[in-house]
Amino acid sequence: MTESEATNYAVWVLTQQPRSEKEIGDRLTKKGADEETVLVALEKLRGWGYLDDTAMAERWVASRGKTRGKYLLRQELNRKGLDSTEALEGRSDDDEKSACLSAAIKRVGDPPKDRSREAQAKLSSFLQRRGFGWDAIRPVLRQLYQGIVEDDLDAVEADE
Q1: Are 7 and 61 in the same domain?
Q2: Do residues 97 and 128 share a domain?
Q3: Alpha carbon distance 23, 78 (integer Å)
Q4: Which domain holds residue 47?
Q5: 68 CB burial (10 A radius; 0-12, 13-18, 19+)
Q6: What H or E segment, with its residue span, contains residue 83?
Q7: C-alpha atoms less than 13 angstroms from C-alpha of 28 in its C-beta half-sphere
Q8: Which one in 32, 41, 48, 58 has a CA-CA gap of 20 to 30 Å to 10?
Q9: Using a CB cutoff of 8 Å and minimum separation of 24, what contacts does 137-142 make?
Q10: What is the mean pLDDT of the chain?
């Protein structure tokens, strides 16, 4: 694959959806481009302003962070070869709790129909899979299941 072909292919890939430098490099390598060709194509794309990993990471967190926690976002960004430190730096604990509440309400409704301990444990597991820590999950469970006994909440945490 020539440098021109690699650059054209990379531009085409970027028209489909935004990609990180790592993703473009991986796609070009998979297509048969050697390392030098990949580097030249990436340099051209950066020069044209088509690749900006920092901006992409920030957009990723802004769009997917509405119903996902820091842990899952960090994994997704790292998988894409993006630096998660800067992108997640501006995410406060209040943002995390708000996103956790949003994901919980979307899952079980407000107020939840099933208020059993098992339902609470299922919701807790779901939120953990979405990348939320217990420090964000606990207040959401308290808010949605008001009147639940503190021992039940501790039991749900212990089940995890």
Answers
A1: no
A2: yes
A3: 11
A4: 3-51
A5: buried
A6: none
A7: 31
A8: 58
A9: 137/100, 139/97, 140/97, 140/100, 140/101, 140/104, 141/104
A10: 88
